[in-house]
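cron nightly-structures :: item 1 of 1
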Amino acid sequence: MDAVLRDRPNINPPMVVSQRTAFESDSVSSQQLASRDDDDPVIEPDGDPFVPGAVHRAKKRKVRDNKAVDHLLDALQEKWEHDKTTEQTTRESDRTFREEESKKGDRLVTIIEKGMNDTVDILRQIMNKL
């Protein structure tokens, strides 16, 4: 602090808070608290040593617009249903594609087997002639 202030006096010295600190000058009187007509529930300090006799008010909850939330939920529900149908059609098309490819593969296997059988028959005929 001395490096910052140099020779100037400290106008706002830091406040030291301890159990013996009295807050009467800064606190609101109990009559002023009783005269408030808020609907906030009053919470007692439960023996907090740093706040002797102070009364705390509970935080008010924010009221949110349910219309916006409902609109968002509806939009998400529609998107979910659309994604679900899209995924289902994609799975069906993939399944039919795999079935067609397996049929093509089966045809290819039969052609290769027929070719191998023909080759074996030709080699047997050659062997019998020798």
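cron nightly-structures :: done
Residues 39-43 have pLDDT under 50 and may be disordered.
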